[in-house]
Amino acid sequence: xxxxxxxxxxxxxxxxxxxxxxxxxxxxxxxxxxxxxxxxxxxxxxxxxxxxxxxxxxxxxxxxxxxxxxxxxxxxxxxxxxxxxxxxxxxxxxxxxxxxxxxxxxxxxxxxxxxxxxxxxxxxxxxxxxxxxxxxxxxxxxxxxxxxxxxxxxxxxxxxxxxxxxxxxxxxxxxxxxxxxxxxxxxxxxxxxxxxxxxxxxxxxxxxxxxxxxxxxxxxxxxxxxxxxxxxxxxxxxxxxxxxxxxxxxxxxxxxxxxxxxxxxxxxxxxxxxxxxxxxxxxxxxxxxxxxxxxxxxxxxxxxxxxxxxxxxxxxxxxxxxxxxxxxxxxxxxxxxxxxxxxxxxxxxxxxxxxxxxxxxxxxxxxxxxxxxxxxxxxxxxxxxxxxxxxxxxxxxxxxxxxxxxxxxxxxxxxxxxxxx
Length: 421
Hints:
By secondary structure, this protein is α/β, with parallel strands linked by helices. It has three domains: about 1-95, no CATH class; about 105-240, no CATH class; about 275-415, Glutaredoxin (3-Layer(aba) Sandwich). Helix content is about 40%, strand content about 15%. It has helices at about 1-10, 15-30, 35-55, 65-85, 85-95, 115-125, 145-155, 170-175, 205-215, 235-245, 250-260, 335-350, 370-380, 390-395, and strands at about 105-110, 130-135, 165, 180, 180-185, 195-200, 220-225, 230, 275-280, 285, 290, 295-300, 305, 325-330, 355-360, 385, 400-405, 410-415. α9 links the parallel β6 (about 195-200) and β7 (about 220-225). α2 (about 15-30) packs antiparallel against α3 (about 35-55), α2 (about 15-30) runs parallel beside α4 and α4 crosses α5 (about 85-95). The radius of gyration is 35 Å and the shape is elongated. About 25% of the residues are buried. This is Conjugal transfer protein TraW. Keywords: Signal. InterPro entries: T4SS_TrbC (IPR019106).
């Protein structure tokens, strides 16, 4: 892939050297911890890249689009980070450690700078792809959604929109106590390690100024060069911890359980006006050949398949007997419950019925779990809720209904007061 990129930018060797060592470093990070020899090799590669950038070349050999080439190389590396398994894992581990490498220049800001101060920061960072404005948190009195919208609204005033993040960890990492503060990080940090600070300055908002000073040989903390303000936003992580500490989780769980039934959508059916018995053939016609992974066709288009197996016969592959009785009922209808109390002993004794599954159309929402418990206690068995899929599959129209199987067909019986069929 690097050869492909080199073909597009033949003169940007320095960019490619740095990129290749970044990729190599990603592999080291996942396979094993970097040894001192590994680090020395990567550092040597970085120095070669830096020397290549500063080397005087004849004008005919100079790349007239070096900035574009460098941007393309960085974009290529970011793409690798999202697709290459090794680099993805390295990026994930960096995130877990709180290592931030998405931007080289961090401009720390706060709403305490006021409208003009913030506007200066936004203007300075707008159009700087390597720079990002960092806030410590959201204004007091706002929730997270409101705070994010407020900060987004500030960014939207500029074209192009500057990069903005909320990251309290960066304030702690670089010991930022006043704003504005600009921190420039090394361009190619060792894989898996926190980038070193090249230079930083407080009281100024323009990254270009700091970059110019670094180009002139300045490094380290350049001090305070203008007015600074305290950070007004509380640390977002500290706020989150306090809020989490104040949450009564037992009460939350209790509320969630209580809300369960109020959110349920029941599929109610009318009471059966008379007893009735219907048969349903579950056979389906295959519309296209079905084959195993090795290509063996076991069902051809046009074949009719019945998933039911007659218990009196040997079941074919893919079929099985239906050995239960499914009882669909409305537990809030006293007459239905009385009728089931009479009929269930008979149903349990029917040939082929090995167990009974109870399905309710509704429960009392106001009583919630008490309603559910009273029904399950009544049958001494779990009770499930009726779903639209079951209604369609068995063509259910009334309750109570009892679903069993006879041979290779389902039998749906609707029970009514008179008890006749």
